[in-house]
Amino acid sequence: MSSETTTGTAGARTRTPDLASAAPGCPVAGTGTAVDAGLPPLRHWPAIDLDGVDFDPVLAELMAEGPVTRIRLPHGTGWAWMVSRYEDVRMVTGDSRFSRAAVMERDVTRLAPHFIPSKDAVGLQDPPHHTTLRRAVAPAFTGRGVERLRSRAQDMLGELVDSMLRDGPPLDLTERLLAPFPLAVVCELMGIPEHERPQMHEWTSLILSSSAGADRSEQAKGAMCGYFRERLRAGGKQDGEDGEDGEDVVSLLAAAVAAGDVTEAEAVGLALLIQIGGEAVTNNTGNMAYILLTRPDLLARLREEPEVRPRAIDELLRYIPHRNSVGLSRIAMEDVTVAGVRIRAGDPVYVSYLAANRDPDVFPDPDRIDFDRDPNPHVSFGHGPHYCIGGLLARLESELVVDALADRFPGLRLAVPVDQLRWRPGALIRGPEGMPVAW
Ligand code: HEM
Asked: What is the pLDDT of residues 65-79, one digit of tens each?
């Protein structure tokens, strides 16, 4: 196989070049079988390490090529459809003819060498059982449930900021605030005692990155599943924990298992996804901080007009390319036509929420960050039954982090030239490795 590098973005590095047999924009040699005849060309989408909030050049090419394209990712077998326009993404993700449960039976072409969710995970269930599973933990994620966490989250963030101010600049914002804060919040939500939080963080980092190798990721996943299994068997709570109300996620899941609503394996899978999902906020707020520190005009506006902040956070959520490539696929359970393209029963289909967020028919001038964008119906948290369970929590945490950056660190700036910032290699979720700051 040739080892061409994807073109289009300075600083973009392909991670598995031997699997990238064609540059984007060129049909892949040798894939035009009789079965493929009449189908759009197959595009290889290699794993690329991108810097900052650069938009993936391969995704940009796929979007330009048409609303429904065909892709092959570095791992798994075969090819899949890729749907990129806003209305089509909403249609596919809201349509029960596309199944998540059926993905488990297949080795669908994918980004990650390892397959993250376990078989019983919420991401791989279809309604109505999917609905039952999510209902088990719903009280922790409703507006009321999340608001219950607000003052505790504020206190935890306040302590982290105070300690940074005490120690003085320069400091790594990721290490001192953007990593520990979401970890503390999600552990609070889950009911993980403080002394076990570093272990949770280590497992999450290994699961979410391919750079330590698929085996280490699988081991970490196994260890985290084992932890949750034990906690569920003990009824959720641990000795000495506070929060007698049983509304932490592990207690809610233990109650649902005891009631026979969900199996233990499903509860473990859901706990794992919530735990690792919680730390997605580190990367997303890392990208928010990066944008604000490299666009002083935007940060100045947030300081001068605090009332703009809720809209600004939505716009940053829309703009930030949260993940690399695409997430979990869906399988068409019958023939379905999407944007005039016939998708056959059994075909795997990906949607790109990142692409949908840049659809010019919905977001005029989509590549511009515009804090006055209104309406802003972005799909950064997904759409349909699998809509991000932690969306409200992520918004709350982003709000608190942006408040802290704008209000508690006057003169906040990067402490190193921007080209010295490093971005997580081999990560499914994109974000800075560190962010040295001064104020
Ligand atoms: C800014 C941060 C976050 C972003 C951008 C984000 C985005 C997403 C997206 C796009 C989906 C997939 C929708 C689909 O499969 O079609 C998702 C699912 C999910 N997220 Fe998040 N998320 C964030 C934070 C969180 C947090 C804080 C948690 C937990 C505390 C969380 C837990 C989950 C879970 C469990 C799912 C699977 C839901 C299901 O399949 O029913 N996420 N998220």
From this structure: 999 999 999 999 999
